[in-house]
Automatic annotation (TrEMBL):
Entry keyword annotation includes Cell division: no
GO molecular function: ATP binding; ATP hydrolysis activity
Annotated localization: Cell membrane
Source taxonomy: Bacteria, Bacillati, Actinomycetota, Actinomycetes, Micromonosporales
Protein name as it appears in the record: ABC-2 type transport system ATP-binding protein
Amino acid sequence: MNNLAIAAYGLRKSYGDKVVLDGVDLSVPEGTIFSLLGPNGAGKTTAVKILSTLISADPGSGDIRVGGHDLTTDPQSVRAAIGVTGQFSAVDGLITGEENMLLMADLHHLSKVEGRRTAARLLERFDLVDAARKPASTYSGGMKRRLDLAMTLVGTPRVIFLDEPTTGLDPRSRHNMWVIIRELVADGATVFLTTQYLEEADELADRIAVLNNGRIAAEGTADELKRLIPGGHVRLRFTDPAAYRSAATTLPDAARDDESLALRIPSDGSQRELRYVLDQLDAAGVEADELTVHTPDLDDVFFALTDGVRVPAPTKVAAR
Ligand SMILES: Nc1ncnc2c1ncn2[C@@H]1O[C@H](COP(=O)(O)OP(=O)(O)OP(=O)(O)O)[C@@H](O)[C@H]1O
Ligand SMILES: [Mg+2]
């Protein structure tokens, strides 16, 4: 049985009347990747800020331990054990990448020699050697993100908080970041990651929690979460509003997306169920412009568990 790198019970936080976290339990075993998912404003950054001692939880919250230390009674030890890469960059654009790294080394009280060695090693690891002497304001978004993470690692943290580490990165940079995150965990670190990309949580996380309305709506492995969602669906898309309306009448079970003229019919994707849908459309004399069959993925879990109606993108095209 692993020790817990993060253990929080009954986490609460309100801003004025607005309850952001309404009794959230989080437990993350050492050496694993935990992903907190949730729509904009769900409270992911708030949770990261509390767990990393940047803000305090409201009175009435239960015990919080990070890296084996009590957050309330021993925040200094927590700070010594963690690293945080915030949602918004901590990089100072006016100085070079290398100077940013050396500044971090100073903050961590590394000796001059040790600081230079650590900075050089991390700049190398994050492929920033060529850019190291240039002002960070000239870096691309992906380079800034890498520098941000490199700065976080100066203190060799055992518990690493990454708040949306790959937002805005192109697919290659995102994959590179995933490789780095896996390496950190292979080296024994624990990663607490927030993300908007369900694919990212699916790819990286040992366990995933979905935050919604201040509470954890579901928690488990990606597979466990997917099993919460029954079956897939058939999606029909129309360009003619009249055809869309007749189809919606003839298929009363369908969820409507009036904006994009799409219908979503719960279905296991079997031939029999597809035929039923097509027969109904034929009987009503309407033809869909696009028919796709969708098998459940983490997106479905997200949409099912969080607020806001949206028809997710199809995964495979079955017929036209
Ligand atoms: N300092 C603050 N004062 C007042 N309200 C705040 C403050 N910080 C956060 N909030 C509110 O708390 C809620 C949660 O914000 P938070 O930044 O934690 O969400 P998030 O899940 O990280 O969202 P995003 O995906 O957009 O980053 C939001 O409604 C936000 O407006
Ligand atoms: Mg956030």
